[in-house]
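@channel sequence for tomorrow's demo:
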Amino acid sequence: MDQPEEGDSQSFANRILQELYPQIPIPFEHQPQNQTAREEAFNKSEIARIMQKVPIKKAPGYDGIDFIVLKTIFRADPDILITFYNKFTLLPTLVKILEKLLLERLNHHLRRNNLQHPNQYGLRTNRSTEEAILDLLDKKNSAKNSNQRALVISLDNKGVFDHLQYTSIKSSLDNLKYHSNTLETLTDILSNRKVAINTSQGPETWNQQQGCPQSSCTLPAFWNMVADEVLQQDWPQGVHLQAFADISSFWVCRLGRNCDYEGIHFDDESYEQTSPPSTIHPALFSLEDRITHGGQVPSNRTPIKVCTDGSKINAQTGSAFCVIENEAITKTWKAKLSPANTVFQAEILALKAAIECANTANEDVNI
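structure tokens (generated this afternoon):
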């Protein structure tokens, strides 16, 4: 750190904190809003959905409360945590659940209003590295077919998550122009944060104005919102910019849509399109209500069982199902797929065929 190691332990800890968390003054002015959007209170189904996902082996905070304790409390009396998350100040482990609840609502707002840039492929639902690569291949082949020169510049930004400024995140949240309790709470979480190092003379604290841990559940949304400001700039014609998390690629060429690769033409409309993400508000989402079976009639008979399977072995892909009644196989179905099909496609095909078979039965069916 270009300074001699002298002084007491607290002063040395202070120099470490200054080096790791430099103070970079970036002004932030909150834009006043005339009206706060009405939001539903956190409910049991929202909290239950988060509780199912949280790991039980994470270390607790300074209060000694871990996720095992929270799950036990929620099973015994859910109203305790529902009240906490809607009214009270929270302790460390409880805050982690709150962040996940707020993140679900923030992502819902971004998806519903189409506020995520289409060229951001990282840290997003229904986006992948394969799509980013195919997008670049599309641009390359389009330039090649039109006899144009093309240049790709790929940037791997070092330490972006460690240097992500809280003022930049707050500005991005403010630019959404959606004044709500969710955004106000997320902004408050980024305010007055401190880091500390315990020393023999007591803890040494320092204001934290940057840095978003990669394990943080809010990291994907915060980073994408800040990075989208770059993607949304008016770039010159022929310049295509895409991003995947902290990696950015500039492609300078003529833009195209379909892809021609090694003499084969791939028409985008000939392939299955990605299913849109859910636009149901987290407070209104109920997994039990997503799949319904109308007109169920109580029956004393044992339900018919349908077992499905999809597999891929030695470049051979296939789907199958069988119907079991009274512990006896009464019907079988199988199909051979192309070697290019994946095992997931084979499993989906088996489920589809099983559902079609179940629809013809006038009895209860378990798949």
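heads up for whoever presents: The chain has a mean pLDDT of 80.
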